[in-house]
Design a protein that fits this description.
Strand order of the largest sheet: 6-7-8-9-11-10
Structural class: alpha/beta
Distance between the termini: 62 Å
CATH superfamily of the largest domain: Transferase(Phosphotransferase) domain 1
Number of strands: 16
Shape: globular
Radius of gyration: 26 Å
CATH topology of the largest domain: Transferase(Phosphotransferase), domain 1
Length: 524
């Protein structure tokens, strides 16, 4: 028998994590999915809808009862198995339990790889995590989801998308096995690539992404224009291509180009769809760029945005004397960032990749927030473990893969931007210090955490560059760069506490979200 008091701390952690995730998934995920645990339920019989080995099972005989297997096969086509694979008991049980479902060839088995605190991403842990993933496939998993977090919408989308890809791969494999082997020609390779692009950009969107624009077979694309838009200039960006263009009416637009042949995973398609939906249907605010249209050709997707300026905040800052702004200018830009970000949070949307490169500045010094590919719906106390962003603006919790509240991760990023605007470009890497162009976030996060643990470190980060900011700048920085999320201020609270400065008095007078709506920012 498995004595739950003697399984050790590793097994106890595995049981707790698996049971917590199973209970969440049972509440939030559609009934098409059965939940199976590898170890017995800690308090005896597992809850309805969650299947686990009987509590009296000997470790070497760990399996599901046949009646449970029959019930799963009769009602579900997807089996979800949350586990850590951090214990030998889990691995041994998986080798016995997963084959119990092999009698049905149409059952999709997805193992949810839950991370323990010892699994936080980094150079040493990555190899171990990959070994566990390989072992899960060897045990019979159809797919492995890496620590997806407790977001019901994202989890459901990931399950349905993974099953759709798995089913199509099975059909193709069966067809290929039934055919006489043939030499794989260049034409055949191109045909397979076309089929994969069609699955990613048409099959999955048709099933799961109702607002995705369909392919326009006759869309005109040349090196100088697309669909009536004439190119003017090509910008260098962190990822992808952005073109300055003129629309048929002469208005200037920005067009983000996505090469469909360079996308290999459903998540990449979801990122494009996510940005289109959020910026065209969900968010409308003067400090957030607006997506006006999507053009979809056989080879590319084009997202058409309102033009937000010829440079981003990073370029503007680096062009300043000593690469920094005075307080009045910094607060002017910071106010606009916080204004737009607070509206996102009011709409239950967190950005998760706030940085100066994602803040466009036009000729009238208007700031607009860009790039919502990693944005996420975030309500209440919702947490995530998806790593988004990069140095210097990524928070330590995010960088090492710990659970974090997305809205509070945005607060940290806003705090770093305030620090670097006033203390100067690369101020954080000067304070820690680290090599700004070469450092990896997961490696530097513990050092950033240790630095801000020291009393007076926020003021010291400014003085390291010879800057003595006002007291309210230091107070804001301390509130935004609090290490413990429980003590970190949200940007909506920042507005209400009137900490931004005197010129923001009118906006900060808002004491609740209804005032926000009355100013017309939300619309009818």
């Amino acid at each position: 028998m498995v004595d739950q008091d003697d399984v050790g701390s590793e097994a106890s952690t595995a049981i707790v994590l698996a049971e917590e995730f199973a209970q969440f998934a049972r509440r939030e995920v559609d009934a098409f999915c059965a939940l199976v645990l590898l170890l017995p339920w800690s308090t005896g019989i597992s809850p309805d809808g969650i299947f686990a080995p009987p509590p009296s099972t000997r470790e070497e005989d760990m399996k599901l009862e046949e009646k449970d297997v029959a019930e799963v096969l009769a009602h579900c086509n997807t089996v979800m198995v949350p586990c850590t694979f951090d214990t030998d008991a889990e691995v041994a049980a998986a080798k016995r339990i997963l084959p119990q479902f092999a009698k049905s060839k149409d059952v999709f088995i997805v193992m949810v790889h839950l991370f323990t605190d010892s699994d936080l991403p980094g150079r040493e842990a990555n190899a171990l995590l990959l070994q566990r993933e390989d072992l899960m496939f060897q045990c019979g998993a159809s797919e492995v989801l890496q620590d997806p977090g407790h977001d019901a919408e994202e989890l459901t989308m990931a399950l349905k998308t993974s099953r759709a890809v798995w089913k199509l791969d099975k059909q193709r494999m069966a067809q290929q096995l039934s055919e006489v082997p043939e030499v794989v020609t260049a034409d055949r390779i191109r045909d397979l690539q076309r089929q994969r692009r069609q699955l990613l950009w048409e099959g999955i969107p048709n099933a799961l992404m109702p607002r995705m624009k369909p392919v326009r077979a006759g869309l005109i694309e040349t090196g100088r224009n697309v669909g009536g838009y004439t190119y003017i200039f090509r910008y260098k960006t962190i990822l992808g291509t952005v073109l300055k263009a003129r629309d048929p009416d002469g208005a200037i637009r920005a067009i983000k180009t996505v090469e469909k042949a360079e996308a290999y995973h459903p998540e990449e398609v979801e990122d494009v769809y996510r940005e289109f939906v959020f910026l065209s249907h969900v968010i409308e605010h003067p400090n957030i760029v607006r997506c006006l249209d999507m053009l979809h050709s056989t080879s590319r997707v084009y997202l058409v945005f309102e033009f937000a300026g010829d440079q981003n905040l990073a370029q503007l800052l680096k062009g300043m004397p000593e690469q920094r702004f005075g307080e009045p200018a910094a607060l002017e830009f910071f106010h606009q960032l916080v204004d737009g970000l607070a509206f996102c949070h009011y709409k239950n949307l967190a950005h998760r990749h706030i940085c100066m490169e994602h803040l466009a500045v036009d000729s009238e010094r208007r700031v607009r927030l860009l790039d919502f590919r990693t944005a996420i719906i975030s309500k209440g106390q919702h947490v995530s473990r998806t790593i988004c962003g990069r140095l210097p603006c990524i928070s330590p919790q995010v960088a090492v893969g710990k659970s974090y509240m997305p809205r509070l991760a945005d607060s940290w990023s806003a705090g770093i931007i305030l620090l670097e605007m006033i203390a100067g470009w690369a101020a954080l890497s000067c304070a820690i210090p680290y090599a700004a162009e070469e450092a990896e976030a997961c490696s530097e996060a513990p050092r950033i955490h240790a630095y801000f643990e020291v009393a007076g470190s926020h003021a010291a980060a400014f003085s390291r560059r010879g800057v003595r900011p006002s007291n309210h700048i230091i107070a804001m920085t301390q509130a935004l760069l609090a290490l413990d999320e429980k003590g970190r201020i949200e940007v909506q609270q920042l507005l209400r506490t009137r900490q931004i400065g005197q010129h923001d008095q009118g906006y900060a007078d808002s004491s609740d979200d209804s005032d926000y709506a009355e100013r017309g920012a939300i619309g009818p």
